[in-house]
Amino acid sequence: MTAAAIDPAVERFLLDSIDTVPHLEALLLLFQSPATAWTVEELAARIYVNDKQASNILEDLTRRSLIVRVDQAPATYQYTPRSPEQSALLDRVAQTYRTQLVQLTRFIHSNASGSVRDFARAFRLKDRD
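Given the sequence above, the corresponding structure tokens read:
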């Protein structure tokens, strides 16, 4: 039996916005509890990374406008949808995570490193100007 293919829109989102599985797990955690403002420490404990890694992940997601920082001291973060389309896409991503976890994590691991993707994103942004 072969596994179903990952939705192309989900793949594109992962390629464009997600560097690591912990990035995805953090985003989905915030997405699925939008009323909660998460501290770095709380998130780190939930996704099993250290505080520095959690802080970097939260800043990456904030820079990509996927989440927002709601307080400065201590820093807390929340999911605030930019559009109904973004929320619908994240619903699809969350569903894919629940039903195709192994495929999804392999897909993320098989892609270029975050720094390589950031470099490519810089050129894509430049081309839009």
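The first strand starts at residue 38 and ends at 39. Try to locate this feature in the token string yourself.
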